[in-house]
Design goal:
Length: 102
């Protein structure tokens, strides 16, 4: 599977931190080995294709600078990623809509 960071979302639809989501949650994960810091904020609830989802912003900092900002819509009942938007430091935005995946 390769090396995964604590977010474990680069290759899949689930990460352990999704189990603890609650409205208003703010959390920070520090990976001393890679110097990455992930700041996780639950922005509220949203609906995607008739599913209630937590809308979560994850800021990834590398050596104190924002490397990328990701927004996840995570199903409140199943705790899996339904939709994702990633803003890269290059200015590019990458979208993933798991609801429409086969």
């Amino acid at each position: 599977m390769g090396v995964m960071d604590g977010l474990a979302t680069d290759i899949g639809f689930f990460a352990y931190w999704m189990l603890g989501l609650d409205e208003g949650l703010r959390w920070q994960m520090i990976d001393e080995a890679s110097s990455k810091v992930h700041k996780i904020d639950v922005l509220g609830m949203d609906e995607v294709d008739e599913m209630q989802c937590f809308k979560v912003r994850v800021k990834e900092l590398l050596h104190g600078r924002v490397n990328r900002v990701r927004q996840f819509w995570i199903a409140a009942d199943k705790r899996i990623v339904i939709k994702e938007e990633t803003d890269l430091s290059s200015g590019e935005t990458v979208y993933r809509d798991a609801v429409s995946c086969p």
